[in-house]
Amino acid sequence: QKEVEQNSGPLSVPEGAIASLNCTYSDRVSQSFFWYRQYSGKSPELIMSIYSNGDKEDGRFTAQLNKASQYVSLLIRDSQPSDSATYLCAVTDHGSSNTGKLIFGQGTTLQVKP
Amino acid sequence: DTGVSQNPRHKITKRGQNVTFRCDPISEHNRLYWYRQTLGQGPEFLTYFQNEAQLEKSRLLSDRFSAERPKGSFSTLEIQRTEQGDSAMYLCASRPGSSLYEQYFGPGTRLTVT
Question: Which residues of chain A lie closer than 8 angstroms to B38, CB-CB?
Answer without folding.
Answer: none
